[in-house]
Give the backbone structure.
Amino acid sequence: MYTTVYAKSEGLVDIKLHYCPGCPHGIIHKLVAETLVELEVLDRTVGVGSVGCSAFSYNYFNCDMIGAAHGRAPAVATGCKRVNPKNVVFTYQGDGDLASIGTGDIVHAAHRGEKITVIFVNNAIYGMTGGQMAPTTLVGQKTTTSPYGRDEAHCGAPYRVSEMLATIPGAAFVERVSALSVPGIRKAKKAIKKAFQTQIDGLGFSIVEILSTCPTNWGMTPQEAITWSKDNLLPYYPLGCFRDPYQEGEKNA
Amino acid sequence: MGKVIFAEDVCKGCGLCTTVCPVGIVVMDETRLNAQGYHPATVTDAEKCTGCGSCALICPDSVITVQRLVKEASRG
Amino acid sequence: MAKRILMKGNEAIAEAAIQGGCQYFFGYPITPQNEIPEYMSRELPKRGGTFLQAEAEFAAINMVYGAAACGARVMTSSSGPGISLKAEGISYLACAQLPCVIVNIMRGGPGLGDIAPAQQDYLQAVKGIGHGDFKMPVLAPASIQEACDLMLEAFDLADIYTNPVMLLGDGMIGQMMEPVEFKKPAPRPLPEKDWALTGKANHGGVRRMITSADIDPKVLEARNLVLAAKYREIEEKEIKFEEYKTEGAELIFVAYGTMSRIVKNTIKMLEGMDIRAGLIRPITLWPFPKEAIHARAQEAQVKAVMAVEMSLGQMVEDVQIATSGAKPVYFHGKAAGVIPQPREIIADVKKILGK
């Protein structure tokens, strides 16, 4: 007899996603939703959406959700977590939200060791607003506000969020993964699970940075975008676990 | 031995599923459009499906449900 | 048995907040309100609450937003420049219909300004605290006792109307010391927070969502209409003001907060000069006591209305609207922490009345 081995997660609301065809937001949503169900915390989870393509993410997770102002999700999550520390609180943010306007908020949440889990989707561009340059846009990458290619002399090189946050004592779990292949997606889910477990075990701040794509604003098909991401984003943003509280000898702030 | 079921009208025709099938049976059905106006994903040669779940894993829209044949334990 | 204690305004406001049910404080240092976060940092943990110094005022207001969404009684405090930083967050709180209390202890502005008491944030508080069509009750105490009384009720007010509520003081109210008694107000029936994000397990397995965004204009319009109806209800039920010696007065002053105390002294001095003046003192700046001002302005013996502010003219616009041409409206004020003096006000009054 046949048994179901993969189906739409009950951690997702049963509605269609508004994201572009082939956008990895949908993949990442599934991973978070499945994790919350598998860890049996869905019913005590509060998720914080952000601004960007992720602005409507609060419609999709089948738990209590709140929309935050641009960049402010870690602060909103702090309010939620401090009121109900036993609840699981996560934010879902893109690179404009987290790495541009939200740089202060994310650093301080990590610095305070805020026991929240941050899902950070990095696709090196501003999707929702039509393809402008992001802090994570690569040198030479053309966007609507870097039409000649990002010029390092003019506006600097992109910065690596995971490496930066990993220097903060309160950041207990920091890992960069990718949603660009089946093995990559499986690894990403493991990292997301570990991140939430870090929160559940009260060990501190956790973040998973997930390399993604933007087929629409990169001007590519979803498959071409994955290839471009592998060829260009992966070398600059290396995958790996930068902080892991479960490693032997690893001390947590 | 596997079986895949497509929630056809949810499919956005992105084609990512077609890039990961190890036995190459997932294709976009170019002969028709679904309710959203996309060519929906489907399988040719359904009997070749291994139930690996790769297509379902990479699908951003949870279009695909995967089932696997489970052998009953032998008695005696 | 309530006893009278000599307390600094900021500390009394913080104490009243805790007694009024505040369990969470998120804030940031800025003069002249620093004693509020400092008091909260000492007292809240002792009394089962949580204090957290945020990294900036905009972070604090967003922590308030998150905490309020989870059903907490929560507040923040700041002064002008910090309130400006909170503007976006307050708009989100108002749109999402979340209760909270925000204290602004005003200082001279604009810009970084100075740290002296002023009343230069009236328009910001009442008209322009954030983008979009929304209102927020603004409570303006004129004494530390009144600040305590208003704070003790503020969290109830916020919960009843699921709205941010602002207490607007100035550096004088914040810094002076006066004897206060913490008198619990008569309890008001409070609605259940059946929207609070406490986790599905705590509300029947059905998820809840809080947002300030509705991408469909018709849906956002519906939300706007709900807000507008709420504001009309607040205008009908929550106006607070004081009338001082307005019976038979020939000049009606309108002043609030610390300025109103100086105006009361001015009125007594004018009495000695056979000039009958009275004061309408708004205690709620929004909703503004328009009818009371209009009614007095229409009295035959009233020759003029004068707004007196520690600014170059902000509340005077609302006084003009309220008077709606019944009598001429004059203004006397000083900005940047320079305090209008009774003799200066009297000089203007004499000129206006031709005396």
